[in-house]
Design goal:
By secondary structure, this protein is an alpha+beta fold. It is 55% helix and 13% strand.
Length: 508
């Protein structure tokens, strides 16, 4: 009798699980209701962040069974003849114009370096040639930043930022034709120096929580009544802000009079504001661990801007967060990995040379096993860092927007860079702790926390992006289950959840 009951129960479960109409009628509604109670409601900004970018080989990595032949089949990237010439000539010349120690003393790059960067197109490496830019590959972008970083961190950052997430990239993807035609040539030739202001004193890692506000209203611009926004903001930690001529600004949007639509709070908007526009406060500096790159706050109170200054114009009001999330991965895949590897190459070269010429006990210190152990770690970490940098740049060149891979690379390259510099300082000993023009490692040691912190602090990057977003995006069913739980159409929610949940069971 008991065996019969068990057999009937098993058959019943099999029927329920293999007959979708019956399953959706009897089982799935209860499961869906349970999941809705358990899962917190996902906001549109959270959904945009979670769904941003593309999945590539990271999906294989998170599966636990990586397809190594697939990774090894990715062609090795190479520079074009034009890119190689620029790297061997213009980049070398720019490095000759800058001395890292003197830059620290002056707290700025020399005027000749700024002029050369602008005239030779360093600020427009990602801008297409039709607008006067260089249209370099992601690999070339990475190579340039890496080389400059080996010479001077302030030099690398000053070139890196205009070619990362900011006005140029946002204009390329979302700008109106008029905005592109006006601004991109000026950004390419250095007539405009851009910055992008997102971080506020009350919203750092939680960038979507920025309190800065633009209220849709009518105002006066160039003597005419104009539809626009009256914006109030307070931003900090904005690189290039003290010298910027063009301010990219992200702010929440309010439309209480419904001048644009029936939606009273459309969301985050991105706009371009000339730095000399009335009401813009800009020019003061932060001093991030004595690094000489330009970084500072900006603010404004009820500054009126016409609606045409919104990136993409009126149709893009409230769509700024999605813009930022879609464009973030490419910059993060290149900027910090490249600058960190450049610093690491300089550290390994200098430290290994010092270990060969510095003698104690009538022996080069590089012959001592303890020093050899640290040198070996430095070399191994550098090898891994450079391989990760190259892979991330290659992903971008293949058309990917590697949100998770860029986070993995940023985290591990900067953390290994920290370990590498610490080993270098241990080998240099007293030579490493006395600042001066002959100390090649002191500024790198002092400024390591900057790379750890910016573009997603590493604690957040590891916890939230790599193991949060990464595990969800790479899984074949979890994101679909979450989307189904948030689907307002009951019939569609039931169908999608049923398909995803029981597919998940089969996958397990």
């Amino acid at each position: 009798m008991l065996l019969t009951i068990l057999l009937v129960a098993v058959v019943g479960l099999i029927v329920l699980s293999t007959v979708p109409p019956l399953r959706r009628a009897l089982v799935t509604p209860r499961l869906l209701a349970l999941f809705k109670r358990i899962l917190p409601q996902m906001s549109s900004t959270e959904r945009d962040a979670l769904e941003a970018g593309t999945t590539w080989w990271d999906a294989d990595l998170f599966s636990g069974q990586p397809d190594w032949p697939k990774l090894l089949a990715v062609p090795k990237p190479a520079l074009t003849a034009e890119e190689r010439h620029f790297l061997d000539h213009e980049v070398e010349r720019l490095c000759e114009l800058v001395d890292d120690w003197q830059t620290q003393q002056d707290n700025d790059l020399p005027p000749a370096a700024w002029a050369f960067m602008k005239s030779q197109g360093f600020l427009g490496m990602i801008i297409p040639k039709r607008y006067g830019g260089k249209q370099f590959s992601a690999l070339m972008h990475s190579q340039v930043v890496m080389k400059l970083s080996s010479r001077c961190s302030a030099l690398a950052v000053s070139v890196m930022v205009p070619n990362s997430l900011g006005p140029a990239e946002l204009l390329l993807h979302y700008g109106t034709e008029a905005q592109k035609e006006y601004y991109l040539p000026r950004l390419a030739n250095g007539s405009e120096v851009p910055c992008f202001a997102l971080t506020s004193p009350y919203a750092g890692s939680d960038a979507a929580a920025i309190p800065d506000l633009g209220v849709v209203c009518m105002g006066e611009h160039e003597g005419r009544a104009t539809l626009g926004l009256r914006v109030t903001w307070a931003k900090r930690y904005i690189t290039l802000a003290p010298v910027a001529t063009l301010l990219g600004l992200a702010f929440q949007t309010s439309d209480p009079g419904h001048l644009l639509s029936a939606v009273a709070a459309p969301g985050i908007t991105c706009a371009l504001i000339p730095a000399d526009h009335a009401g813009v406060v800009i020019g003061r500096r932060h001093h991030p661990l004595n690094a000489a790159f330009q970084n500072g706050p900006t603010s404004g109170t009820e500054v009126f801007i016409p609606i045409d200054w919104v990136i993409g114009g009126q149709p893009q009001v409230g769509k700024g967060w999605r813009m930022l999330m879609e464009c973030l991965a490419a910059g993060r895949a290149i900027s910090l990995p490249s600058s960190s590897v450049g610093m690491a190459k300089m550290a390994v070269r200098g430290t290994s040379a010092y270990a060969a010429v510095r003698r104690q006990f009538n022996t080069p210190i590089g012959k001592f096993e303890g020093v050899q152990e640290a040198l070996a770690r430095m070399g191994a970490n550098l090898y891994l860092m450079d391989a990760a940098r190259t892979l991330a740049a290659r992903a971008v060149d293949l058309g990917e927007k590697p949100a998770v891979i860029s986070a993995i690379v940023k985290y591990h390259v900067t953390e290994r860079g920290r370990a590498l510099v610490n080993d270098g300082m241990d080998i240099l000993g007293g030579k490493g702790i006395c600042a001066g023009p002959g100390n090649f490692l002191a500024s790198a040691y002092q400024q390591i926390p900057i790379a750890i912190t910016v573009e997603g602090a590493n604690i957040l990057t590891r916890s939230l992006i790599i193991f949060g977003q990464g595990a969800i995006r790479a899984h074949p069913y979890v994101l679909k289950e979450m989307a189904a739980v948030g689907e307002p159409d009951g019939r569609k929610a039931l169908h999608d959840f049923d398909k995803a949940f029981f597919g998940h069971l089969g996958f397990v």
